[in-house]
Amino acid sequence: xxxxxxxxxxxxxxxxxxxxxxxxxxxxxxxxxxxxxxxxxxxxxxxxxxxxxxxxxxxxxxxxxxxxxxxxxxxxxxxxxxxxxxxxxxxxxxxxxxxxxxxxxxxxxxxxxxxxxxxxxxxxxxxxxxxxxxxxxxxxxxxxxxxxxxxxxxxxxxxxxxxxxxxxxxxxxxxxxxxxxxxxxxxxxxxxxxxxxxxxxxxxxxxxxxxxxxxxxxxxxxxxxxxxxxxxxxxxxxxxxxxxxxxxxxxxxxxxxxxxxxxxxxxxxxxxxxxxxxxxxxxxxxxxxxxxxxxxxxxxxxxxxxxxxxxxxxxxxxxxxxxxxxxxxxxxxxxxxxxxx
Length: 341
Known about the structure:
This protein is mainly beta. Helices cover 7% and strands 54% of the residues. A 14-stranded antiparallel barrel has the order 1-2-3-4-5-6-7-8-9-10-11-12-13-14. Strand 10 and strand 11 form a beta hairpin. The longest helix is centred in the N-terminal third of the chain and has 19 residues, at 3-21. 37% of the residues are buried. The model is unreliable at 1-22 and 321-341 (pLDDT under 50).
């Protein structure tokens, strides 16, 4: 592999993944593993029970300072029209890291007479405090560089996410704007780092239950657009649920494709490639407990490494006493997709 090809790979991975990692919680595939609240604040308390979720994501186990993310979130319903939630996270990529905490309030307007024939419009607002760090203590300072001080540089800032969600029977649609405020974080030079980190997310899903049997299928998509850079990507997903006596088992696959590409030298010719990821997921709900595993793998001719991202999600559902198991929060006792998913 020649130098130009290596440079292209590094730039390709850096631009897409690192830019995600420096504007709050990066949008990976957490939402695909029963954690939609992480990206859509209007989903705080949207279902009839509280959800506690812990996720851990790791890439390249054999490499030091490999990218890794951990999140802990909880959200629940308050009364008939309100929901609250909180998220803490730690995101590290090499010598760069950020930690933060978010608090969410959501307002839910019910147009239906009960929670089974769901017709609900939700509005959510999340306020977050984030601390970013750049650890230069292990940098080689033998060659003088006025930008590198050999210390830990740190900055803290505040930002807001806002969104709305609509759940009607077996359809759900969501629109969220992340990082509404322009913030100067001053951890890098002003010429490199923009204060505009706005990201727009649009997603939708639909539950299909043929003949109202034990199987439920859910196709969905997620579209992302970054305002400053114009980066765009889309996820196309499908999941299948199987109702069991103890709850359910489920699995699916997500395909992510970026609309932005990069050129590389392939032998003597110049080729181009867009970022593409395949993410399978498997999961199970045992009474109130939730477990999920996802594996994200980059496809294409040019790849940084043969490995991918491993992610584990652990959860617990705090029911409000009206439902005895997760599967009973599905219309007609498990025949359709879970409400507020």
